[in-house]
Amino acid sequence: MPALLRVICYAALLAAAVSSASPPPQAAGPNCPTKCGDVDILYPFGIGPGCSLPGFKLTCDTTTNPPSLLTGNVKVVNITLETAQMVAYTFLTYTCSFPVSKNESIRTTKDMALKLDSPLVLSPADNVFTAVGCSSIAVLQGRGRGRGRSRRYNRSEYLTGCITSCGSVNDTGEDGTPCRGHGCCEAPLTPGLSQVSLTWNKGFRRVTDNWCQYAFIAAKGWYKYSKKDLIGNKTLADRLGPSNVIPVVLDWAIRNGSCPSTPSGGDMESVPYGACISTHSNCVNASSGTLGYFCNCSRGYAGNPYILNGCTNINECERKDLFPCSGGTCLDEIGDYECRCHFGRRGDGKSPNGCEAIISTTAVAVIGTISAMALLAVLVIFLHTKREKRKLRDHFNKNGGQLLKSIKIEIFTKEKLDHVTENYRYIVGKGAFGEVYKGTIGDNARVAVKRSIAINEDRQKDFANEITIQSKISHRNLVQLLGCCLETKVPMLVYEFVPRGSLYDVLHRKRDALPLQTRLDIAINSADALAYMHSQASENVVLHGDVKSGNILLDDEFVPKVSDFGTSRLMSIDKDHTNWVIGDSSYIDPVYMKTGLLTEKSDVYSFGIVLLEIITRKKARYDGNNSLPINYVKASMDWKTKEMYDAEIVASGLEEDVKCLEEVGLVAIQCLADEVNERPTMTEVGEKLKMCKYQWLQSYGQARGICP
Fold this sequence. Notes:
By secondary structure, the chain is of the alpha+beta class. It folds into five domains: 89-252, no CATH class; 268-312, no CATH class; 315-368, Ribbon (Laminin), CATH 2.10.25; 401-496, Phosphorylase Kinase, domain 1; 501-703, Orthogonal Bundle (Transferase(Phosphotransferase), domain 1). The chain has 14 helices and 36 strands. The protein has a six-stranded antiparallel sheet with strand order 3-4-5-6-17-10, covered by helices on one side. The protein has a six-stranded mixed sheet with strand order 26-30-31-29-28-27. Strand 20 and strand 21 (311-313) form a beta hairpin. The longest helix has 38 residues, at 361-398. The termini are far apart. This is Protein kinase domain-containing protein. Residues 1-20 form the signal peptide. It is a single-pass type I membrane protein.
């Protein structure tokens, strides 16, 4: 029955805002039933002692399936607090004249009497009295509750009815037409009816094909006229089913008073009254022309005003069907909401028109054209972006991305590195292999991002293996690899940032003061780092391949960190060499240059030149027979090495300092031996340098009468 559904849905819609603000209201006592069958029992109604206000007691008939909620003998379908209404079922009345012979018929009549409990009256606004048939005279008698306070003036008698006329069923209106006397008629209800009875006038005359006449009180809109209801015996009754129930709307109220006048200058919503005990509730005088009142939650609140703190703030923005905000942004407030119009719109977003556009139709057309062009541009950009993403994915896979996912190293996207380096804004180093940029990640942690210029195509497939090895290398004097980016043709590496720069910068550009002990510490710690790479880093031998002062970085305390071993070569223990020639020509091992065979001793040779830079502060230029290693070896043979030492050390005039420089120089000459097998290992180099420092400290202390 569509009209019944509309009535129930209407009641549910009014109550829907409650669910977004608070759980369903509870009855007065913790043991009071809150449901009977499919119907929620909302206080002030209730079942059992202490569960309802006086006169609002209901019963639950558990003999039916599902159980039925009753007020007296009337079945309750729905209770609504907001409108103080109840949907209930009444019954169909009829009188039928069924022919048994040509001159004889049997008449059956079913009347209805309805008596409602004290809080309830029939709603005159939502119900209508209806009669269906031809030549029907239906009569409604009733008694109501007036607005007087005495019993004498609180009840009134009422009589109404309506008449239908039609010669035959064909004389009536079409199906669905309003009931205006042809086939069916309607009569309004007077306010305050609490008792009614439906009867038939004895002058009823049967019309051909029309055996039955019907009368009922129903919710407005429930009955839709149909000619079929006039034909046959009890056709409308059969269509309703065995129960013959019809929905009606009942108004209810608390009948022992009315709302007080609003205090002068006061706010009625903030003044509790009678049964309206919740804060943010207000009193509403009963409709239907009767004495009494009911309670509502104040605007912006929902819930049950008949229980303590039953009215709670609702979020109007979640119920746009009830609280419109068209063309704007909805902002919830305590007890209300705000609708701020979007950019380019103005007006009242809460009104039916909502926020209206400021721009004219012509401007909209222009904008539409521009938007179409922009959409085309977006499509082009989208296709380009898609192609670039495919290219990034191809580079990622080609550079061994799938393998690197399994190790504990961060894999950066190209987009993230662009952000980290501010689009490669700050360059901090540049060499034959590429450029190094300063960046920031996390909580302002500085990093160095190396972007190589090119990579050997034959070695590209081994890149992932190299990164895997480097990620496992951990030494205080080696720059820590933090992550990599594989979405570029040439992979980029992310290292910890070492702030002071390279040893080359300190020696030859900044020319910072470098005491002898600091130089010895730089040499010793750098040697330890290379020795760790050669012998202890992993199951593979890790060769640097490009040892030079520019690849030894210094922190703020001049602690060295060997870097750029991302270009180093890996070789298995059972192999002797690799034939990929790399490195700076000023530091490169001559044997490696001739044979292409890179070994640990190649790193030793290059480190020997670094030692000469440390003690002489001269650049390691390669210029035929005029180079730092050649000049130093020649000076050593002529006993003139003192002339090559850094003046900063020699100027001290301390013989023990010069002696220490000579010892370090001898270690450097051993590293530079032409015969590879005559060169010491990096472990041996480190030990020799530590001995030099120990002897220097010992002689330094003796000269000053202190212990080393």
